[in-house]
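So, could you explain this one?
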Amino acid sequence: MPTHPCSPPTAIVRMADAGDLYTSWRWIHDSHPGGVGVAPAAQVDATVAALARALPDLTDPQGLHHALTAGGFSGYESEHDLAQLLSRTFLPFGLAQQLHELFTRGVRPHLRIQPSPRVAQVPWELIAPDAGLRLVDIADVSLLAPLSIVHSPARPVRTWAHTRQLPVVAVLDPRVPGFRADSALGSVLGRMAADCPLSRRVASYAGEGRLLPDVNEPTDCFRREDVDREWLGTALREGAGRLVYVGHVTAAAPESGQSEHAELHLACAADSVGFAEPTRAHRPLSAKDLLLGTHTLTAEPARGADLWPIPSRVALIACESGGDLRFSEALGLVSAMIAGGAELVTASRWALPTDLAFQRIAGTAPHARPLQDAICSIDAAHDVPDAVGALCDWQRDRVATWRDERTIEHSPVLWAAFATISTS
């Protein structure tokens, strides 16, 4: 059956770890033949290790400094070499041939990828099938949501088409109790001015009556002390079209096997009801809370999906907010958002450098705001019908700028961290 003339060819790409890495793909409507590729275990391990050396490692006191000044993403040539290595290892030859054939015809397909846990941090959009050519240049790329969660009978379904006019719930750099602005769970964005790009976006939503919290000035939306789990639940239950979170996430370690312990750091006090252990004066909101609600915690427990009905689109802009993809049983924050009703979630594969880190470590100009620019671009993409296409357009623009400018503020160390997981 031919592909619908208004729809791009779409391939479902699934990966499985069995020592070697097995990759299978099939095209929707059988527009092209499917296939299977195998990458040897030793090659996969070496390539994954090379990628890991390029990423910010927050467990190492010098990890962020290395990533921004000497790692694989710190310069164009070293990054391009890494991107070609990723492509040679992970893009099956048969699929690459089909993509090349479509590219020469001016057709941009959509690849929906389900990576295995071992390769969950691979920035698929960035891999280079040919010199100077990235996968996102020739295809739109998104990740598949876990089928077990998407098809759960208890999962509520909320669609952008029916909720797009509802408010944007914005949790922007919340003030975490017990942590100063310059501490580990301190400010991500720093002091915000009314004329900066993100403040202007906040002001536009407020002017349209589409913003929660209700603020008098756009800067009042940042570093709030009241955006805790109770406030979030109330805001979501009133009806929301989107959720935008910018702040801190503590990802569960993959070796723990407990992805549900991933934690979102709101302005919750330590006496808040939840499964996560308190830290100083603060109790994080965990994926387990979102999934189980107050089950076993209160005399009259409530489901997580009832306490926090998740809107159709969610942006989790925080370090390794998409870390549950590194688990064989993904029950982290992304999965919790989808289980709660989201149909599309944008999250990060690895730790994100802040604008201050770019300035202090890498020496970027004070007016350079790569993180804030990324937040604005992701937020804008989530506000249009084809969010995946808009996000890929943004990353294509970032690729072109990185190729031309080759300066650290344009490095994919930041923007390639973001993946979009969708249910359809």
